[in-house]
Design brief:
With 240 residues, the chain is an alpha/beta fold. The protein has eight helices and twelve strands. The strands form two sheets. Strands 3-4-2-1-5-6-7-12 form an eight-stranded mixed sheet, sandwiched between helices. The protein is elongated, with a radius of gyration of 18 Å. The two termini are 19 Å apart. It binds nicotinamide-adenine-dinucleotide. The site of nicotinamide-adenine-dinucleotide (NAD) has 25 residues, from helix 1. Nicotinamide-adenine-dinucleotide (NAD) binds next to helix 1.
């Protein structure tokens, strides 16, 4: 049985992960953590109350899952490393320093970081870089992404990753990203490859947050058994 703690448990992603963890036989939700002034503190999430004390919660878990705010990531990554708890982080919009702290933690603990936990986006990444290689340097590559109006960061972490991989394997220059923040869009990403007289568009649409949460469950099982190190979703998916 893997004991799981979720930070940001009252949020959109955190609550979805909690709900899915509660339905799994080999996972047990043992901590649900929120910010100190969250209105629902004390409310039951499965068998555990929503609490704000991260350090007490760390004592109850094997894996800490983080879907809270980017600003506090260095503190949480350090706390997980000090207590030797595996860490799954899906928060986007991390500064370079925050990402560095997460990497530093991975010297002591197993860490999975993914800006997007959907298997489909992982496949989109591979298809798009393959297409860019086939089409060659005469084709322009741009990315269009859309998310709900509450999303804090733009461009999305997923679009940044796509742009980075395409810049490396495609035109060797920065791939422009166009961001739309509107309504309740869960997450759309389109890679446009346009050349003389034609345009190829590869689109991924997340229609439910559960897709990210299912990927997170796979990351939890992976990280619980992994040696210290920094792992991506590709590492997780390589284990079937
Ligand atoms: P949200 O605003 O709904 O949830 C964030 C929650 O974190 C809130 O409930 C907030 O109160 C809580 N929080 C803030 N500070 C905290 C603290 N110090 N301690 C504990 N809890 C704290 O946001 P969301 O839509 O759930 O997204 C959360 C993050 O996950 C964002 O960075 C988003 O981009 C990212 N995200 C990642 C994926 C993925 O697949 N990796 C998918 C969707 C969203």
């Amino acid at each position: 049985m893997i004991r799981v703690g979720v930070v940001g448990a009252g949020g959109r992603m955190g609550s979805t992960v909690c709900r899915l963890v509660l339905a799994e036989k080999d996972l047990k939700l043992t901590a649900a953590v929120e910010r100190r002034d969250h209105p629902d503190l004390g409310r039951q999430v499965g068998d555990c109350p929503l609490v704000s004390n991260l350090h007490e919660s760390l004592g109850l878990v094997d894996v800490l899952v983080d879907f809270a705010l980017a600003a506090d990531i260095p503190d949480r990554a350090r706390a997980a490393a000090v207590t030797g708890k595996a860490y799954v982080c899906g928060v986007t919009g991390l500064s370079d320093e925050a990402m560095e702290e997460v990497r530093r933690a991975s010297a002591k603990i197993a860490v999975v970081y993914a800006a997007n936990f959907s298997v489909g986006v992982s496949v989109l990444n591979r298809l798009a870089t393959y297409a860019a290689g086939l089409l060659g340097p005469g084709y322009d590559i741009e990315i269009v992404e859309a998310h709900h109006r509450q999303k804090r960061d733009a461009p999305s972490g997923t679009a940044k990753n796509l742009a980075e991989s395409l810049g490396r394997t495609g035109p060797g220059k920065q791939v422009p990203v166009h961001s739309i923040r509107a309504g309740d869009v869960v997450g759309d990403h389109t890679v446009v490859l346009a050349g003389p007289g034609e345009r190829l568009e590869l689109t991924h649409r997340a229609t439910s947050r559960e897709v990210f949460a299912y990927g997170t469950l796979r990351a939890i099982r992976f990280v619980a058994a992994a040696k210290p190190g920094f792992y991506s979703l590709s590492d997780v998916l390589a284990v079937r």
